[in-house]
Design brief:
With 103 residues, this protein is α+β, with helices and mostly antiparallel strands. The chain has 3 helices and 4 strands. A 4-stranded mixed sheet has the order 2-1-3-4, with helices on both faces. This is Thioredoxin domain-containing protein.
């Protein structure tokens, strides 16, 4: 099972939208994967994404589609650094680790 496509479900008004978009672009280039952006597609996340304690899907979430059609969440919560700012590097590393563990 190998990664085929990255799928980001986001909202342009979300405070972490830009960080997730940058992470998606970097991962797509680095891993040579297709990318797709879905805007506020809660139905998609209800089927494939993570949900909060009230069983509701949340944004943004980065998922990967494998060559056999499975869709798996790989980055649903961006890590924060010591100054409580989004840590894009740590988020990217977490996503890469999960993608490599697919194989």
């Amino acid at each position: 099972m190998t990664a085929k496509k990255l799928i980001l479900v986001t909202s342009e008004s979300h405070p972490l939208h830009k960080v997730f978009m940058e992470t998606l672009d970097e991962l797509s280039k680095e891993l040579n994967l297709e990318k797709e952006v879905k805007t506020e597609d809660y139905a998609f996340l209800a089927d494939y994404g993570e949900k909060d304690e009230f069983d509701m899907p949340f944004l943004p979430q980065l998922l990967v589609q494998t060559d056999d059609g499975k869709i798996i969440p790989i980055l649903t919560k961006m890590p924060f650094d010591a100054s409580l700012k989004p840590d894009k590097k740590a988020g990217k590393e977490e996503a890469i680790k999960k993608i490599k563990n697919l194989e």
